[in-house]
Amino acid sequence: MVERPNIIFIVADTVRADMLDVYGGRVKTNMLSGIAKKGVVYENAIAPGTYTVPSHTSIFLNKRVIDIPAMRRDMMKHSDEATDPFLVKSRYIGENELTLAGKMGYLGYNTALFSNNPFLSRTTGLANGFGYVDNIWFNQKIDKNRRSVKMVLKLIENDKIRKRLIRLAYAISRFLPEKRLDELYLKLRLKLNAHFSNEYGYYELDKGAAITNKRISRYLDHSPKRSNFILVNYMEAHEGYPTTLITDGYTEQDKWLYMSGLVDKSSIPIIKNAYSKRISYLDSKLSGLLFSLREKGVLDNAVLVIAGDHGQAFMEHGVMYHNVFPYSEVVRVPLITAKFENGKQVNTSERVENAVSLSALHNSILDIGYGKSDIVDGNLHAGSYVFSDHVSITEVWDKYLLELFKVRSKYARTILNTKKFNNSFATAVYKNGLKLIHFHNGAMKDVMFRLEDATEREDIIDKHRSEAHSMLQAASA
């Protein structure tokens, strides 16, 4: 019996497709481009959710995001419980739920997770099924954080102390006129952001990739001699960004200030350029990982999957970063697959044009595990509906402050209203070269775009009412 291939699943967290030269973008990626030449490139791979948790949970459970109970919870309404910077209260996958990793383990695979993402841990349930888990983020960020960062995070986490301090600040603020209060609030927020950016390591180019590669190499040296299913999450493309590589001055990176119109948007290109720098760096580290895998014989028989879990917006549609409405820049992600034999990539060159969901990777990877296939195959080519669901926002730590100050501060009201507006559920539906974005509570008018309209500027819903109706019915089924 031929040994089943190793499966290396690389999640390039927060990488949007149209930034990469593989997809016609401006960021040169030697490693990804080299893999893409002989591999399968999915031109319209769609993330099932708009941030890490829904996308990964959807892939791991093979469920649509809106059908996962934990994802239907309104975080703004339950902000006290959701304010969880150390992720000790949050659980998204139950202990008894069988995940993709669990299934692969039952099929005899070594299963390992190397996580640079705080959400991918045993605590949240997203590491369920993995036999080996390396929480690199916790080791690098929580254990080694500077004292001031730890103090701020502890303060945010403690609901009682946080609320008492906010009430005290509000009592003092009553002696200030509204205009002066707005000025003071914005000044303090900007000052806190600047301090946190420096202390939390925003300006570092490496967000854990270098040590992750070393940990993977060490794991492979000691893992049992069976086929491996390894998932690696790299966070280099996630905000905050090393804007100091682009400009000498401070660049504000608070998404809610930009989306609320409270800061000048002229700095957006600087942030986007810093994002590009991180992607280039990640590409170099992926090259190093591939070299190590080849040296250790993992690529003698392997399938490689490289995907983003969601994209990243830079105010193209009035939204910033992710966990916002499912426009192309937020949910169209890279997906490249490759087959390796004897350390060399097999030529399976193909470019798939139709929309496919990352959640379809679940069954394709299982087919490899069952020995039905040795490539990521047909499950991604099916012409069914593809969905991407935007659910509740997670940035709710300051909701109590904003609610209290909204009566006297225009800026607090503006940010709170912006958060509530973007907290509205929305679904993107793809079918036959069309995309419908449906806003569940009517916060905005539904829109439709052609798949080839990458910028999503031309709304064609009035020309395709019958198709929009069918897509809406499918989304609601």
Structure commentary:
The chain contains 16 helices and 16 strands. The chain is α/β, with parallel strands linked by helices. The strands form three sheets. Strands 1, 2, 3, 4, 5, 6, 9, 10, 11 and 12 form a ten-stranded mixed sheet that branches. Strand 14 (426-431) and strand 15 form a beta hairpin. It is globular and about 75 Å long. The protein starts with 5 loop residues before the first strand and ends with a helix.
Q: Keyphrases for this structure?
A:
single chain, 477 residues, alpha/beta, Alkaline Phosphatase, subunit A, ten-stranded mixed sheet, four-stranded antiparallel sheet, 16 helices, 16 strands, 37% helix, globular
- Tally the helices: 16
CATH topology: Alkaline Phosphatase, subunit A
Largest sheet, strands/sense/barrel:
10 strands, mixed
Going by helix content, strand content and strand pairing, the class is: alpha/beta
Question: What is shown here, in short?
Answer:
37% of the residues lie in helices and 17% in strands. It is built from 16 helices and 16 strands.
What is the element layout, followed by pairings?
Layout: E1 6-12, H1 30-38, E2 40-46, H2 52-61, H3 79-82, H4 100-106, E3 110-115, E4 132-135, H5 136-142, H6 147-157, H7 159-173, H8 178-199, H9 209-222, E5 228-234, H10 255-259, H11 268-295, E6 301-307, E7 313-314, E8 320-321, H12 328-331, E9 332-333, E10 335-341, E11 344-346, E12 350-357, H13 361-369, E13 386-390, H14 399-405, H15 410-422, E14 426-431, E15 434-439, E16 447-450, H16 465-476
Parallel strand pairs: 1-5, 1-6, 2-12, 3-4, 3-5
Antiparallel strand pairs: 2-9, 2-10, 6-10, 7-8, 10-11, 13-14, 14-15, 15-16
Helix pairs in contact: 7-14, 9-11, 14-15
